[in-house]
Amino acid sequence: MIKTGIYGLLRVLSWLPPLPRTCALVMVAFGVVSGVLGVLYALAQHDLKRLLAYHSVENIGIIGMGIGMGMLGGALGKPALVALGYGGALLHVLNHALFKGLLFLSAGAVIQATGTGEIDRLGGLARKTPVNAAFFLLAAISICGLPPLNGFVGEWIVYGALFEGTRSVPRLSAGVSALGVVSLALMGGLALACFVKVFGVVFLGKERTGTRVARATPGAMRAGMGVLAVLCVAIGVLPGLIVPLTGAGVQVIADLGPMEFERALPSVLAPAGRLSLLAMVFFGLIATLAVVRRGLIQKNAVALPSPVATWGCGYAAATPRMQYTASSFAWSLLSSFRALLCPERRLHAPAAVFSEAAHLESHTVDMAEQDLFAPLFRAASRVSRMIQTLSWTGEPAMERRSARASERLRPFVAVVVGATAAVRRGSIHVYVAFIAFTLLVVFAIEVWVAPGAEGHSAPISVMQGAPQ
After folding, report:
1. Which of 335, 356, 362, 320 has its CA nearest to residue 40?
2. Which domain holds residue 438?
3. What pLDDT, in 10s, does the model give residues 241-274?
4. Residue 438 dihedral angles phi and psi, to the nearest 5°
5. According to the model, what pLDDT value does residue 225 have?
6. Which neighbouring-strand residues pair with 344?
7. Sign of dihedral through CA atoms 314, 315, 317, 321?
8. Under 8 Å CB-to-CB from 279, ≥6 apart: which residues?
């Protein structure tokens, strides 16, 4: 559903001539802001699925940066920048659908097994659901942009577009491109810290008290996740087979020839392939050493007369209360960005010898939700009540419409009220219907303005700059 907006944006760009350079720089700036704030707010979340949703904001920012660099290449006549920008954006659209779908399915398996998605109430699930833990770890590595998985390849091409921008465009545009490089690196580091937190708190350590005993992940759920995991690995290991497929999309968006697209790829894809190969060798070496170590331990194991407890540095008898929570793990990073996020910390400290139990909690409010969208929706709701009741306050007016007019409008009002209620409660059927309607409108417009359509060839030739 998120990619519907990206599709609409790219379709509009395919209908327009190259936009001015300022539009491209604004797009890159929006991508930077969306990506950095998305990963920061994800780091502050305590709910598993809400955390993943904020990472979607981050990845849409990465896609926006790629689109912006493609727009910049079109404005300046740089085919290599067009190919890398739009190609990286399209590939990351596919990659995000794969690894984020895998993450959400894995999170759903966690909720199905434990009955909760609250991170602070989870722990030790790797022993109860090892396959689900492995899938979540694989998707986490991919979303962090680490080799040898597909997220690394998509972000690497976007990096290539940004570096190409710093090298081959004028000063202001090069500065914005350099800002994009730094921001993308910051997103990767913060995403890595966020998923270290999630995987460590949810799947490692000991099971926390007050949580339902975890059940094994059903085979059908593992099969669905396995398909996405295989695709994530395949794109990361074989980027030379998958990335060229985005050339047709780039040709539609920017009217870029296939030869120009193919000339821009090898210099970027070759290092990505080598890094993925080195990463595979590294992980294979680690797995081999782990197997050898396990075999040596079992071979040389001797029967001890009795267990001997050694000093465990105070950690010999670990309890769930000694483990990190989502808040405690992320607080040091969030406090570094406190001027931007304004995190709240509430402490109830003991005030006497026999005081009540102390507790500490932290919370980060989404400023866009609290300060922008909530007031906007309240204002829209009041305006709707004013229109409905014909009064400035939104309270029912003394004089109402005639019963006959009310009867005529009642079916229309019922449809509008029903659709609004379905959207507010998050009905997936209504969302899918809206998406289908939007796609039909887009397809209708595309057919209407398609070259060769009867009666519409002249407007297209004027828009594209050809003589009438």
Report:
1. 335
2. 402-468
3. 888 888 888 888 888 877 888 888 888 888 888 8
4. -60, -45
5. 93
6. 363
7. positive
8. 146, 147, 148
Contact 331, 362 (CB under 8 A): yes
pTM score > 0.85 for this model?
A: no
Amino acid at 218: P
Is there a domain that residue 303 lies in?
no
Please report which confidence band the pLDDT of residue 417 belongs to, taking 50, 70 and 90 as the band edges.
low
55 contacts: CB under 8 Å, gap ≥ 6: 38, 39, 42, 100, 103, 143, 191, 194
More confident of the two residues 41 and 346: 41
Within 8 A by CB and 6+ apart from 18, the residues are: 71, 74, 75, 254
Q: Which residues pair with 345 in a beta bridge?
A: 362
Sign of CA dihedral 309, 314, 317, 318: negative
What's the number of domains the chain is made of? 3
Q: What is the total residue count of the chain?
A: 468
Q: Which amino acid is at 18?
A: P
State whether 389 and 440 are in the same domain: no
Comparing 192 with 392, the larger pLDDT belongs to 192
Give the Cβ contact number of residue 216 at 10 Å.
14
Please check whether residue 92 is in contact with residue 66, taking contact to mean a CB–CB distance below 8 angstroms: yes
Does residue 430 form part of some domain?
A: yes
Cα–Cα distance measured from residue 295 to residue 232, given in angstroms and rounded to the nearest whole number: 31
Asked, for residue 294, whether it belongs to a domain, the answer is: no
The fraction of the chain above a pLDDT of 90, given in percent, is: 30
Angstrom distance (rounded) from CA 373 to CA 181: 30
Vertex 75: Cα angle to 72 and 78 (nearest 5): 75
Reported as a single tens digit per residue, the pLDDT across 116-128 is: 888 888 888 888 8
Residue 390 confidence (pLDDT): 63
